[in-house]
Write a structure and sequence with these properties.
With 331 residues, the chain is an alpha/beta fold. The protein folds into 3 domains: 114 residues, Rossmann fold (3-Layer(aba) Sandwich), CATH 3.40.50.11220; 69 residues, Udp-n-acetylmuramoylalanyl-d-glutamate--2,6- Diaminopimelate Ligase, Chain: A, domain 1; 119 residues, Nucleotidyltransferase, domain 5, CATH 3.30.420.180. It has 12 helices and 16 strands. The strands form 3 sheets. Strands 2-1-3-4-5-6 form a 6-stranded mixed β-sheet, with helices on both faces. Strands 7-11-10-8-9 form a 5-stranded mixed β-sheet. It has a 5-stranded mixed β-sheet with strand order 14-13-12-16-15, with helices on both faces. Helix 9 links the parallel strand 13 and strand 14. Helix 8 packs across helix 9.
């Protein structure tokens, strides 16, 4: 988590610097020769995953108000009074991790974490916080309130998962008999009206002809996802052979999706464990019988989920990194 600290007095600055030694991030004293509060907030809000104001809650509220957009995208915002008595999460308590950050700050300086989210106040399961702890993308943030609202009303909620989940389910959370009966679902292939939590565990293996454009790759990717009812949000990274490391279209395609892109030599790809779809043509061109499946496996440390799919001079395969969801992560 990238963090940035703002302080306004010598006392606040000292506390911010102390916190930053344990929870790293740049520390700025606004005004007093530094940037204005508005300037600092505009830059920090756009560039960081968490903002920590050391000062009064009112100062932080007025500072962040022009920039708040959505619980799905806003950074975590925590306020700590300059004497270190209270740590207050203001924004993105669950999805952004502000509640956890406030607890961590409180543990460092002896503060009281002031957690006001309703599920936490009542000691109930928070589906969005559980999702964040498992690196899941919440596909429909507006549906979080449906799940939380039922729990707060004393009603049970149902879940469906295509992955085994360790531990006993939280109170009020029961298994659904089918995906369409679930209130929330842990899945790579969302369908229906549930709240869908998609783990970002996919690595997309890519093969392509020389000169393939980003637009061609994007079109092929759309077809690939549609054919497998795959949520594209599940993909966290991409991989290919090192012969493609200067392909402008491939680089632009991955950059547009903000995927890290790994390249492997033919020799390294040969070492990938498992069985793969062989191609004599690919072997003649690259020195290895399969690029996309082998690259995905090596980059993921896991196994193939969707084997090689070819079309329009592009091949894709999807491998999944090891994933072990656990109900007890919030215990």
């Amino acid at each position: 988590m990238s963090r940035a600290y703002a302080a306004f007095t010598e006392t606040g600055l000292a506390l911010a610097e102390t916190l930053a030694r344990a929870l790293p991030g740049p520390v700025t004293r606004c005004g007093h020769g530094g940037p204005s509060l508005a300037e600092w907030t505009a830059a920090a809000f756009a560039q960081n995953e968490a903002l920590i104001f050391v000062g009064a809650v009112g100062i932080a509220v007025r500072a962040i108000a022009p920039f708040c957009r959505s619980k799905a995208s806003d950074p975590a915002v925590v306020v700590v009074d300059e004497c270190g008595h209270f740590a207050v999460p203001l924004l993105s308590g669950h999805l952004g991790g502000a509640n956890d950050l406030a607890r961590a700050i409180a543990a460092l300086c002896g503060a009281v974490p002031v957690i006001t989210t309703a599920t936490d106040a009542h000691g109930l399961f928070a589906v969005d916080e559980w999702a964040r702890h498992h690196n899941c993308q919440v596909l429909e943030p507006e549906r979080i309130k449906t799940v939380s609202g039922k729990l707060l009303a004393g009603e049970p909620v149902s879940f469906w998962s295509e992955f085994p989940i360790a531990g006993p389910a939280p109170a009020g959370v029961n298994a659904a008999p089918a995906p369409e009966a679930a209130d929330f679902a842990l899945t790579l292939s969302p369908a229906g009206n549930a709240l869908h939590l998609t783990p970002r565990i996919g690595v997309l293996g890519i093969g392509c002809r020389r000169g393939t454009t980003a637009e061609q790759l994007e079109a092929a990717f759309s077809v690939f996802c549609a054919a497998h009812t795959l949520a594209p949000q599940c993909i966290a990274a991409a991989a290919s052979i090192d012969l493609k490391q200067n392909e402008a279209g491939l680089l632009a395609f991955c950059a547009a999706h903000r995927w890290g892109l790994s390249f492997f030599s033919a020799e390294a790809l040969q070492t990938a464990p498992g069985s793969f779809t062989p191609s004599a043509f690919v072997r003649n061109v690259t020195g290895v019988d399969n690029v996309c499946e082998r690259a995905a496996v090596l980059a993921s440390g896991g196994s193939i989920h969707i084997p090689k799919q070819a079309g329009g001079g592009v091949t894709f395969a999807l491998a999944l990194s090891p994933f072990a969801p656990d109900w007890r992560v919030l215990s």
